[in-house]
Design a protein that fits this description.
Layout: E1 25-30, H1 33-43, E2 52-57, H2 59-67, E3 75-79, H3 84-95, E4 103-108, H4 113-121, E5 126-129, H5 134-144, E6 155-161, H6 168-182, E7 187-191, H7 199-202, H8 211-216, H9 223-229, E8 231-233, E9 237-240, H10 254-265, E10 270-274, H11 281-289, E11 292-297, H12 301-317, E12 325-331, H13 341-348, E13 354-357, H14 360-369, H15 381-394, H16 406-415
Parallel strand pairs: 1-2, 1-3, 3-4, 4-5, 6-10, 6-11, 7-9, 7-10, 11-12, 12-13
Antiparallel strand pairs: 8-9
């Protein structure tokens, strides 16, 4: 029997350096300023927001002096300028003042396999050769606190519209569908626009429970409850629908949204988040924490201003990440003055990842039918662009559908 297509591909999910580090205390003692700078850059990274990092100069000697008689942190990062026996003797002095539960990462200037093996044998968790890269350092720290027996966490892709009406939700849902149904990646679309969300409408479905139920008690959100709340659409796609009701207020803190995303990414390799066009601490925090950000804009002045402002904000808050991908949507509306794509790109400091022409008939038919564009069999620049963009997000191409056997077709007719 042939394996389904999804089993022949590499597993999809967050890369090792994208796994968030838990709430731990980290103390670093450096010998050289460049190592301290790398640690400081790692410390402001979104993946280390829960950890408490302090960095100071002095190396292992300073660490021994400061930690003598003190409770040591969860993780200790120390740098030594020595090699061979002298480096080992320094580590032995450090071991005398360290708690048994403290993990130790040693940074050295000597690329010595024998030194590495001896340091590991004496209890060090890792030995890195300077200069250190912030992303590699984050990956090392994350790996120290990851359970190798647990399944990989999902990759989070957040969509946000530069202003209302630019089509961010529509593109989010269509791209999520392509990732799930054509690339065969298990995907969950989360609709965080609680009063006005459209994911249920766009997929012509009616949720019994919604994302609001999960946000109200995020501590109860396990695999069983997720299975009950999520709407299943085929073999690969799940929907976490919004209540889409204005009869109640929705006041949840950033911790609740973060907990829901963390729970979903434990079971879904790809998590696509549809964010509303509002600006609150939880929206800002969700964007900054996402593995990938897609900004949807239209070629007008308000979109340009808001896109530029958000890109500048994300550069500061995501110094080790690639810039967000910008989709310029609804280009070429008849008789509407527009900012040329070239000028838009020059202002935001980079070319849009995708430029989509305006096609009211194509989007209107899909919306009225409660289907996705590709699901309708639509062809043209819009559908081709969505497929290509989904592939650029995941690095995958559509998987050819497996032909159904005569028996499966017969069984389907009997069920119908």
């Amino acid at each position: 029997m042939n394996n389904p297509p999804s089993q022949t591909l590499e597993p999809f999910g967050a890369a090792p350096h994208e796994r968030p580090v838990p709430r731990i205390s980290i103390h670093a003692f450096c010998e050289f300023p460049d190592t301290g700078a790398a640690l400081q850059r790692a410390g402001v990274d979104r993946r280390l927001t829960k950890a408490q990092l302090t960095v100071q100069l002095g190396g292992i000697g300073a660490a021994v002096d400061q930690l003598t008689g003190q409770v040591t942190p969860n993780l200790l990062i120390v740098e030594t300028r020595l090699g061979g026996r002298a480096a080992l003797e320094e580590l032995d002095r450090l071991a005398e003042v360290c708690d048994a539960a403290t993990k130790v990462v040693v940074i050295g200037r000597v690329n010595d396999v024998e030194l590495y093996r001896e340091l590991i044998r004496r209890g060090a968790s890792e030995y890195l050769v300077a200069p250190v890269d912030p992303i590699h350092l984050i990956e090392v720290i994350s790996g120290l606190y990851s359970d190798p027996g647990r399944r990989p966490i999902g990759r989070v892709i957040a969509f946000w519209g530069a202003r209302g009406g630019v089509g961010s939700s529509t593109l989010c849902h269509n791209i999520g569908w392509v990732i799930a149904e054509e690339q065969h990646i298990n995907t969950t679309i989360i609709d965080f626009d609680l009063p006005f969300g459209t994911v249920a409408l766009d997929f012509n479905d009616e949720p019994g429970q919604s994302i609001a139920d999960a946000l109200a008690t995020p501590e109860r959100l396990d695999d069983v409850l997720l299975e009950r709340i999520l709407l299943k659409r085929g073999d690969y796609l799940s929907l976490f629908a919004a209540p889409a009701s204005i009869e109640r207020d929705y006041e949840y803190g950033h911790d609740a949204y973060e907990a829901v995303i963390d729970a979903v990414r434990q079971s879904s390799p790809c998590v696509v988040i549809d964010l509303p066009h509002i600006w609150t601490p939880w929206v800002k925090g969700t964007l900054i924490a996402a593995d990938e950000i897609v900004l949807v804009a239209s070629p007008d002045l308000a979109s340009l201003r808001n896109t530029k402002n958000l890109i500048d904000l994300l550069k500061v808050n995501r110094p080790n990440d690639v810039p967000p991908r910008v989709v310029l949507n609804k280009v070429g509306v008849a008789k509407r003055p527009e900012i040329p794509v070239k000028d838009f790109a020059e202002t935001i400091g980079g070319e849009p990842a995708l430029v989509l022409p305006y096609d009211a008939a194509v989007f209107g038919q899909a919306a009225n039918n409660g289907q996705m564009l590709a699901e309708l069999g639509q062809k043209g620049a819009v559908v081709d662009g969505i497929r290509a963009f989904a592939g650029s997000l995941t690095g995958r191409k559509p998987v050819a559908a497996q032909p159904k056997s005569f028996l499966s077709l017969f069984a389907g007719k009997k069920r119908a």
